[in-house]
Amino acid sequence: MRIVKYPSRQFEEGVTHFCGRPESNRDIKSVVGSILENVQRKGDSAILEYTAKIDGVDLAGGGFRIPLSMMKRAKQSLPKSDLKAIKEAIRCVEDFHKRNFPRDWNEKNIHGARVGEAFSPLDRIGIWIPGGVVPLVSTVIMTVALANIAGIREVTIFTPPQKNGSVNRRLLAAMALCQVKEVYRMAGVPAVGAMAYGTETIRPVCKIFGPGNAYVIEAKRQVFGEIGVDLLPGPSEIMIIADGKARADWVAADLIAQAEHGLGGRVFLVTTSKRLLDSVKIEIKSQVKYLRHRATIEAVLEIGFLAVLVDRIHQAVKVANRIAPEHLEIHTEQSRWDRLMRGIHNAGAIFLGNQTPTVLGDFTAGPSHVLPTGGAGRFLSGLRLSDFFRRTSIVEYDESCLERARETVEAFSRMEQLDGHRHSLRIRLQDKRRESNGG
């Protein structure tokens, strides 16, 4: 843990160090660019080569695609408690996101013309589900559930194989419960290449969704423009704003939970209380002892934990807006929640009160847990239903509306020296005048 005061030069140095985007380094760009180029050029053979090299799995005999029968068996093999949890999470996510379903609309503008918007779901999407430290069953739900609400016909999932070549059965069961029919196993960067360019056996998609490590993020960045990508979500982040009355054991538990996601993660604690900081350090050491991913958690907390001491709790608003964390928890007296929340504009998701740990958002609360990281919360929002739609503007003028727009169109044509634009309107009005004059 590194402790800095706010405001101070040490705080700015700490933020620069902790919030930099390591995925942008030249080595990663070069490696990713080479893999993508080979996938585009060699197709399936390149994917086989890189999956063997990266994941240590030879897929030459079994192919990339997971049979539907395997997904069905995976669903049938899960305990009832796991199936119940997955179904409940699907329902919560669907209930939340149905509320912002984009609707077509039409209105009259000042010329009397009809203007509006029409929304249509994307034709075919690809979703990357990381393997990494643990099987991210919840990420299947937090992406596919939105695609299903949107009405996307072709949803494809790409995920890395296990060492034996299979895919974790809990992941497959969640995919089956989300009605996914097309699932491929392969390494991350080659998967992005397959989604973007297609291969002999895999058709390209319109847009890629899902979180990933530094290499997957860079791959998505490099194919953007060839196809669409979502918000480039990277390693997990959490910030906790806590006053002196916060429970150190709960704060420590929530920091540990996000550090559990793996290397590259960042955790931030902003508080007015040095005593709380000391207590949190003790609690972390105590709580992490018997956890399955102790080594991973300790590694993240060793290099990715920044504590910020403020004189007044409302200074935490400026700290939060400067860092733009993926998850933000507020552990203060309830009377302070509204003021803090109104001031914080740069956070992926805000969790109010010490009874609302981030793990609820990770698994089941409702909003998608695919959120901006690495400071991108300053200009991006979390995954939402509109990300799965194309928006088309609709404009309809008749002759009378055209006449009302004439002066404005001609003025802009003069200002921008675009005679062809003016002619495009005038030729219609001239025809109208000839008709009114009898030919």
Describe the fold and architecture:
This is Histidinol dehydrogenase. It comes from Candidatus Moanibacter tarae. This protein has 439 residues and is an alpha/beta fold. It contains 17 helices and 14 strands. The protein has a six-stranded parallel sheet, with helices on both faces. A five-stranded parallel sheet has the order 6-5-4-7-8, sandwiched between helices. Strands 2-3-14 form a three-stranded antiparallel sheet, with no helix packed on it. Helix 4 crosses helix 7 (169-177).
Which key phrases capture this entry?
globular; 17 helices; Rossmann fold; single chain; 5-stranded parallel β-sheet; alpha/beta; 439 residues; Histidinol dehydrogenase; 6-stranded parallel β-sheet; 14 strands
Show the helix and strand layout.
Blueprint: E1 2-5, H1 9-18, H2 26-42, H3 44-55, H4 68-77, H5 80-97, E2 105-108, E3 114-121, E4 124-128, H6 137-150, E5 154-159, H7 169-177, E6 182-185, H8 188-197, E7 207-209, H9 214-223, E8 228-229, E9 237-242, H10 248-259, E10 266-271, H11 274-287, H12 294-303, E11 305-309, H13 316-323, E12 327-331, H14 337-343, E13 349-352, H15 358-363, E14 389-396, H16 399-415, H17 419-436
Parallel strand pairs: 1-11, 4-5, 4-7, 5-6, 7-8, 9-10, 9-12, 10-11, 12-13
Antiparallel strand pairs: 2-3, 3-14
Helix pairs in contact: 2-3, 2-8, 2-9, 4-7, 5-6, 5-7, 6-7, 8-9, 10-11, 10-12, 16-17
GO molecular function: histidinol dehydrogenase activity; metal ion binding; NAD binding
Binding site for substrate: 236, 258, 261, 327, 362, 416, 421
Family: Belongs to the histidinol dehydrogenase family.
